[in-house]
Specification:
four-stranded antiparallel sheet; single chain; four-stranded mixed sheet; 398 residues; alpha+beta
């Protein structure tokens, strides 16, 4: 059977939380709404195709901002690979093009289609960004099911704005974590307990072995965790998820890394320092304070308190057993929450192993500094891949 193969470029135009869609009218089917786009012509680059298709179908001039995600359709003699790209409108007025894929409508109810939410708009329709309309699964050639996306998929917004929102959220987490800690201290002092407002119980302290040794230990632990994730945990988890029929797509971090990669390629002087500062240093520092310093540390101390109340104070063996049980339960619980909080199912095992290593490191050193060094080393590898892909040395990470 002859296979009809083609590469299609879809364009995502977003404004004020809405996505631009175009209605296609064909004589053999009901009208339907899709992202503006079309087939990649021979000799045409992806940016050229994205900008051309947007102009032909909407009359809007656009600037290619990078590929958001790739989807594939394979069914009954047709094989289409679709690259969905983010395009920023730079000029023009909305008007429906008379191409072979769409018919020109008699009127245009609104001058600007991007962000339009009018119910009576007969040409353009905008759905909220991140919606999943028109997404389903179809059989692949090997009998398994492949994902085909015809509507709006979750996408990464402007990378600079996204990083700033991450910083804002992290600042809020810092304020809440330290604020709740100090409220607890105030309550304990009110009950007559001699406790201070020092943040050392949250891990803001000097490592037991000193600053340099703590940093080196954290760096080496980060290299070990990275090697384990790349060589064992990561491939194994992908294999298991794939065999069980679950999606191995990275729908959260994949689009984010692609967006950052495009931004780095366009404006490396701003994008690289900002990405490194947020992803390698600031983000991990906040996560360590929240998940290891507050969450794990709180559960661990609670477990020690309970085990000491239940066990004999003079029985060193029972005290040791209680401490190990407390650590295991606290580390498992906090690591599971840490892994799930990232919202990426396929990498949950990798993040769980990383979090457990960080808990063990915190318990050993009594400080979050080695944990931060480990976390930063782990994240730095991903940022390095994004930077290299932004310069075209490596393919864009998925």
């Amino acid at each position: 059977m002859k296979m009809d193969f083609g590469i299609r470029i879809g364009t995502v135009v977003e404004r004020d939380g809405a996505l631009l869609l175009v209605r296609h009218d064909k004589p053999d089917r009901e009208p339907y709404w899709v992202l503006p786009g079309g087939r990649l012509e021979p000799g045409e680059t992806i940016p050229q195709c994205a900008e051309r298709e947007l102009m032909e179908e909407t009359g809007l001039e656009g600037r290619f901002m990078g590929v958001l995600y790739v989807s594939e359709f394979l069914h009954e003699g047709r094989h289409t690979v679709e690259l969905t790209a983010r395009v920023e409108v730079s000029g023009g007025e909305a008007s429906l093009g008379a191409t072979r894929r769409s018919r020109k409508a008699p009127s245009l109810p609104c001058r600007s289609c991007a962000g339009c939410r009018r119910e009576n708009c007969k040409i353009f329709r905008c759905f909220p960004a991140g919606s999943r309309r028109g997404s389903w699964r179809t059989p692949r050639g090997d009998g398994r099911r492949a994902r085909f996306i015809s509507g709006a998929e979750r996408m990464a917004s402007d990378p600079a704005e996204l990083l700033l929102s991450v910083v804002s959220l992290n600042v809020l987490l810092i304020v809440l974590t330290i604020g709740f800690f100090w409220v607890g201290v105030s309550v304990m002092r009110g009950l007559g307990r001699k406790v201070g407002y020092s943040l050392s119980p949250l891990g803001i302290a000097k490592p037991k072995s000193g600053y340099f040794s703590g940093l080196m230990l954290g760096f080496l632990a980060g290299l070990g965790a990275l090697a384990a994730s790349l060589l064992l945990v990561g491939p194994l988890s992908f294999y298991v998820f794939d065999k069980l029929g679950y999606s191995t797509e990275r729908n959260v971090q994949g689009p984010l890394m692609q967006s950052l990669s495009g931004w780095i390629g366009e404006n490396p002087g701003v994008a690289i320092p900002m990405t490194v500062a947020v992803v390698v240093f600031f983000g991990p520092a906040v996560e360590e304070l929240v998940f290891r310093g507050a969450f794990f540390g709180g559960l661990y101390r609670l477990g020690l308190f309970v085990s000491r109340k239940l066990g004999a104070k003079t029985d060193e063996e029972r005290k040791g057993t209680g401490e190990r049980v407390s650590f295991a339960l606290s580390a498992l619980s906090s690591s599971a929450v840490f892994a799930l909080a990232h919202g990426e199912t396929v990498i949950v095992p990798v993040l769980f192993v990383l979090a457990f290593v960080l808990c063990a490191l915190y318990r050993r050193t009594g400080s979050l500094l080695p944990c931060l060094a480990t976390h930063a080393t782990f994240n730095a590898f991903a940022v390095l891949l994004v930077i290299l892909s932004g310069f075209g040395v490596l393919p864009t990470p998925a």
